[in-house]
Amino acid sequence: QVQLAGSGGGLVQPGGSLRLSCTxxxxxxxxxxxxxxxxxxxKQREVVATISGGGTTNYADSVKGRFTISRDNANGxxxxxxxxxxxxxxxxxxCNGLIKADWGNPPRSYWGQGTQVTVSS
Length: 121
What we know:
- By secondary structure, the protein is mainly β.
- The chain has strands spanning 2-7, 10-12, 18-26, 30-39, 46-52, 57-59, 67-72, 77-82, 91-100, 108-111, 115-119.
- The strands form two sheets. Strands 2, 4, 5, 6, 9, 10 and 11 form a seven-stranded mixed β-sheet that branches. The chain has a four-stranded antiparallel β-sheet with strand order 1-3-8-7, with no helix packed on it.
- The termini are far apart.
- The model has no long low-confidence stretch (mean pLDDT 94).
């Protein structure tokens, strides 16, 4: 069974920084892609950033130049460094992993439980 556990959210002032972490654990054959998504009140969940196994990254236009996604393949972890945060970054942030639990089956999408990020003075 694969699980993801995200952490690191909290209250931060505009212009400040925050680092989110996510660990994938359980029976894992291969972590294909990992990413961060967010959902603000009354809005749909949206992608923030993704990173492939080879390190290719993609970012939402709204966070380019401010957020950085990285991963530690050896330990099944993904991070989101959030700099120069803005009030509109306030949301619940979810980590996601496209993971193969065994060699014989295609990868499946797994979600962490979500961590609240609030940007406010």
